[in-house]
Amino acid sequence: MKQYVTMAALVGFSLVASTAIAQGQFPDKPIKLVVPYPPGSGTDTVARYAAKRMESALGKPVVIENKPGGNAIIAAQTVVNAPPDGYTLLWAANGPVTTNVALYDKLPYNPLRDFEPVARLAYSPMGLYVPAGSPYKTAADLFGDAKKRPGKLNYGSGSATYNIATEWLLSLVGAKANAISYKGSSPVLTDLAGKQVDFAIAEYSAALPLIKAGKLRILALTSEKRMGTDPEVPTLQELGYKDFFQVAWWGVFAPKGTPKAVIAKLEGTLLSAFKDSETTQYLEQNNFSAFTANADELRSFQKTEIERETKLVDRFGIPKL
User: Fold this and answer.
1) Where is average pLDDT lowest: 82-91, 137-146, 281-290?
2) CA-CA distance, 224 to 80, in Å (whole number)?
3) Could you tell me if 307 and 284 are in contact, meaning their C-beta atoms sit under 8 angstroms apart?
4) Contact, 180 vs 189, CB < 8 A?
5) Regarding the domain delimited by 2-123+248-315, which CATH topology (the fold level of the hierarchy) does it fall under?
6) Where in the chain is the domain with CATH 3.40.190.10?
7) Which residues contact 86 (CB under 8 A, 6 or more apart)?
8) pLDDT tens column, 30-78
9) Are 41 and 93 in contact (CB under 8 A)?
10) What is the pTM for the complete model shown?
11) Which of 103, 134, 165, 275 could form a disulfide with 246 if both were Cys (CB 3.0 to 4.6 A apart)?
């Protein structure tokens, strides 16, 4: 009997000790933050800010690794296949952890089963853009031509999220256009400015430099309210598409099986950083907004988003990939 009691005590002590070590020593080496989109995108911009705040709080380097392509599947699988120790994290936008479920018949990973949620942190509204020299001065101009000439216009899509958003809008308009896929918002917007495609929906923050440079024209926003930097630009809801609302949001996920103590430390570090006045000022100056939620709240939000976007794909007949 004594032997069983001793063994149980040893197991209990081992669990307590391992938790203490995870909390006390993590991190003891650099952390890799995998970003599914290229440098220059809004996703990448906020990820780099988060990495700096993490470095300051945790005392170890946080390295950004951009892995664009495959509608964020490449980046997601990189993290899924990484050791579950907290040193490889996914800086996720909508695409890899919600939208891909709705858009793919056979996704090579399961966002609910294969990831541990850490924290949701920020969002950016999207905008509807055309080249500065486009004949479309308003959203009504673009929609009118797209309806008159179904399938003649091309739009740039930087991810599955933008594909769904654009197809949803086209369905509401009663128009059809051809999707041209890209590895993120930055190359979409570059080609749009060069008139390689006719229009695009993309992050407002990523498009703003090209708008200011006179290379892009913004026709409408996808958020519920107008932006202070462009108060004259209407929302699509104001233009009559009252059900249309889509933003690009960002959060952090870890591989399944990452110790709870490590998740808790990362969660606390990120939420603390994104709730302080320094971050509020940074986000406002760069046309982002805080959108904080803890790990449990992020998981609930993720499930709700998957359900919502799956219904959108089915409702509007968006082709599965």
Assistant:
1) 281-290
2) 34
3) no
4) no
5) D-Maltodextrin-Binding Protein; domain 2 (3.40.190)
6) 125-221
7) 26, 27, 31, 254, 258, 259, 262, 263, 265, 266
8) 999 999 988 988 899 999 999 999 999 999 999 999 999 888 999 999 9
9) no
10) 0.81
11) 165
CATH architecture of structural domain 125-221? 3-Layer(aba) Sandwich (3.40)
- Location of each CATH 3.40.190.150 domain in the chain: 2-123+248-315
Distance in angstroms (rounded) separating the CA atoms of residues 269 and 53: 8
- The three state secondary structure string of 60-127 is CCEEEEECCCHHHHHHHHHHHCCCCCCCEEEEECHHHHHHHHHHCCCCCCCCCCCEEEEEEEEEEEEE
CA distance 35 to 66: 5
d(CA 132, CA 79): 39
Q: What is the pLDDT of residues 9-42, one digit of tens each?
A: 444 443 443 444 444 699 999 999 999 988 988 8
Cα angle 81-85-86, degrees, rounded to a multiple of 5: 95
